Amino acid sequence: MTHMSEGERFASKAPPLNQAERDAINALFPAYIFRRSRTDEIWTTCCRKHMTMSSEDMMLVTPERNFPAVMWAPHQREQRNRWDDAPRPSVQCPLCGREVIVKELGRTGKQDNLSRYRRAVVLRWYRGALWARAYDCAKHYSRDRGYSLTDEPDCKLVGVYRFKPGLAEATTRCFWDYPFGPVVRQDGPLTKGRWNIHGPFYANAEYGAGYDVIGLDEIQKSPFRYCMAEEAEGRTDRFLQYLTACCFYPRQIEMLMKAGMGNVVIDLTDRGVKHAAVINWDEADPKKAFRLSRQDMKTFLGTNRDIRIVELYKQLKERIPLTECAEWISNGVNVKETFRMAKKWGLPPEKLMRYLMGFVGCAQYGGMSSMGSALRCWEDYLTAAEAMGYQLHHENVLLPKNLGAAHDEATAQHRERLERERRIEQERQTAQKLADQRERDLLMADTYAERKVKLEGKYSFELDGYLIRIPDSGEEILAEGRKLQHCVGGYARRHMEGKVTILFMRKVKKPDEPWLTIEMNGNRLVQIHGFRNEGMYTEKGRFAPDPREFYREFLDTWLDWLKKGSKRDEHGNPKLPRKKGAAA
Ligand SMILES: [Zn+2]
User: Fold this and answer.
1) How far is the CA of 100 from the centre of ligand 1 (A)?
2) Distance, CA 45 to ligand 1 centroid (Å)?
3) Is residue 582 part of a domain?
């Protein structure tokens, strides 16, 4: 005998699927009738039969055996994309009565698109324990892949569970051809909010962890028969954890389910939440489990049985009638926050709750639709009131009679003050910025004065009624740009910092009137432009003549003089070579 792991050994003890269980798994899949009209054949996937219809079959029609309906029903197409409607069963199977989808062979291709996958957990009472076996199930219809139209689903065992009072055991595997893992046991009640037993379907998590449960009636043979498993199955997708809990808390679960408190059970099984402050899970008698008096228990059962009512009742040390707690819960009290705020302001929590309850549904202030929103309103009020120096140690100020009006007044005052403060701060910042700017400008003007002397020595020039001069300041460059409507203004700062050199060309008679603007790079003229850069460039060129061409003689003389070192006579006037044609 080959060596088997503990998990393998445990899994091998589980009962194999019987025919009824296999049929139940088959029923999880869509039911088809495949039809070949030409030969009068049908194949059913519900009851998995193949037959050729005789002419009697076609004539003997009863509601249960309607072969003509099957033969005449139109072929139903699969969804091509997810906006298409999925095909719905259109006729009854004449052999088993199930509603089926009709497929005409010859129009179904290779049937690859009909493959479906399901997950099933199958229960069985077997040898004194409730077994659950988890299967990855698939149905295929493709003949190319070796399947026939009437095959049973492929069922791959991926998990085995055994439940007895006081013990739950499980072994699982990620994929059906892996060995089973070690046996996991839960042999005591829930601790630290974690069950040892988990669902089996964690491979292919993109399909989710849900599964169908088969064999719920087997539970009736088990000690868990009073746990209302059928109802629970519809409410949890963690049914295996539910059965685990039943091993330890069968009577408590029964009690809670019968009391209509399934939520509390699902909290325990799905999230490991015990509500330990109010439920004693060692007691199955409701009065003892909830530690409530007979009268309180009766009162509680008269409410909507929300467990938070008892929790609040206990948290308030039973000082407040349970009915009032129920009223607060149903009016959306935010228990945690209300307790926190009550503590912060030195109020008994029940006093604050009663106060807040007084404003719920107050028609004038629609915001207070619940105690939770009344609390937020009160918190807003306090924030504003604190900032405005209200006398909050007076109770009538801390808990104003008309919270809505007090809130609006305090927050309006507060907002006004915040806005005033913000305005003042903005003004201060603006003034500071201006002062900083002025300081920088002054500093720059100082440095520029030095630079300007150098620029004048190098560039300033006068000839034939024209002159070149140096800008006095950044403002003058900005003014030039504005007047001439070109972009030299953008160069003002860089000129002042010495990163570029901007010069003005003027008529001698009007040395201060903006006319032409020059950018220099050493001795090289980078650009020269006048009003609107000579009227914008267009496809036809510019509208005014290019000043570089128009004043070529003047500009070339100046540039030539520059290149030769900007020589000047004793009066500071440029020394120029004699003009051609001039008398020697
Ligand atoms: Zn059938």
Assistant:
1) 8
2) 7
3) no
